Amino acid sequence: MLGTTMKRNHNLSSDSLAQTSGTAGGVDALISNVLENIRLQGAVFFAWRPSWPFATGVPNERHFRDLILPASDQVISYHVVIEGPCWATVEGEPPVRLEGGDIILFPHGDAYAISNQPRGPSDEDIEPAQQFFALMAAGELPLIIENGGGGPGQNRLVCGFLGCDRYPWNPLLEGLPRYILLSRSALEGPVNDLIDIVLRECGHSWAGSRFVMRRLGELLFIEVIRQYLQHQGLTNNPWMRGLADPLIAKCLSLLHSRIAETWTLEKLAAELNCSRSILAERFSRVIGVPPMKYLSQWRLQVAARLLRDRPDKILSIALSVGYESEMSFSRAFKRSMGVSPSVFRRSVQVG
């Protein structure tokens, strides 16, 4: 899937989820539920002041994830351009010009480069990036990084790298493009205030600054995703298109809010006051999978988070996400993840 760009002069209020679906409370709960199960972890967050000429490549996240967040499934990165212009180039995509005030997000961990002139990523970026992330994760680098060619031109950016839980399945992350480009001037809500706080924090050596920066990085990411979903996700993301459809939004709300219930297609259709055939066809067409398969995948996503975060017995977790026995849960979990719930729990605890 290609990247997506929010036009700098776009009227953001026209695509409001509340206006489209008429179920603002349910939509908010669903988005909150899915964001919670991404399980964000702030890893590396810093201000960057490169002087021209410069070209910095970030390899695919698998090359440095274990250095900064070994317990995460994936690393997501984003950059806030305080002073431009500069260029971002995702592997296999045309270069994108970044102006001051732009925010670019890479939700799938693809390789990319940031530079004062267009330049794509390469394998030569891997070793320098690994060295940089190892030092940054160890706290051996300052919160303001100054490098580049030493010329009179300069950019200023704020850079964030976050860990998340992607597997076995997260419908929000799966539907995001390879990159998201937003203009700060077009953003609403607290995102601009967060950016200002980040800039102030970078400029001072206050106690606990690194911890605060990591939490700010998580909040800033969530705000960027919220802005994207509010104003672009309706057309670009299958799951968000479901939230814009009153029937599908109500169905999703039932499945998420009552995950432990013994659902069947017949029971869902009865609650929604529609026929089974209409529900099955419409849900599959909009979301991309049938309702019962969606429920099975989401149950395993929630179960994986619970196995990571809670000491509860496996049977308790199985029951809490709708399985009738530990055996049926273990079979489904191993079929999806390749390992049993107990082995998965031990592996993430070691990580």
Salient structural properties:
alpha+beta, seven-stranded mixed sheet, Jelly Rolls, 351 residues, 16 helices, Arc Repressor Mutant, subunit A, 18% strand
Radius of gyration: 21 Å
Q: Give the C-level CATH assignment of the largest domain.
A: Mainly Beta
Q: In this structure, how is the largest beta sheet organized?
A: 7 strands, mixed
How many beta-strand segments?
11
What's the overall geometry? globular
Q: How helical, in percent, are the residues? A: 40-55%
Class computed from helices, strands and strand pairing: alpha+beta
Short description:
The chain is an alpha+beta fold and 351 residues long. It folds into 2 domains: 4-236, Sandwich (Jelly Rolls); 245-350, Orthogonal Bundle (Arc Repressor Mutant, subunit A), CATH 1.10.10. It has helices spanning 17-21, 24-36, 65-68, 126-137, 171-174, 191-202, 209-231, 233-236, 238-243, 246-257, 265-272, 276-287, 291-309, 314-320, 326-337, 341-350; strands at 4-5, 41-51, 55-58, 74-83, 86-90, 96-98, 102-106, 112-115, 144-148, 156-164, 180-183.
What does it look like?
- This protein is an alpha+beta fold.
- It folds into 2 domains: 4-236, Sandwich (Jelly Rolls); 245-350, Arc Repressor Mutant, subunit A (Orthogonal Bundle).
- It has 16 helices and 11 strands.
- Strands 1-11-7-4-10-2-9 form a 7-stranded mixed beta sheet. A 4-stranded antiparallel beta sheet has the order 3-8-5-6, with no helix packed on it.
- Strand 5 and strand 6 form a beta hairpin.
- Helix 6 (191-202) packs antiparallel against helix 7.
- It is globular.
- The chain starts with a strand and ends with a helix.
- The model is unreliable at 6-23 (pLDDT under 50).
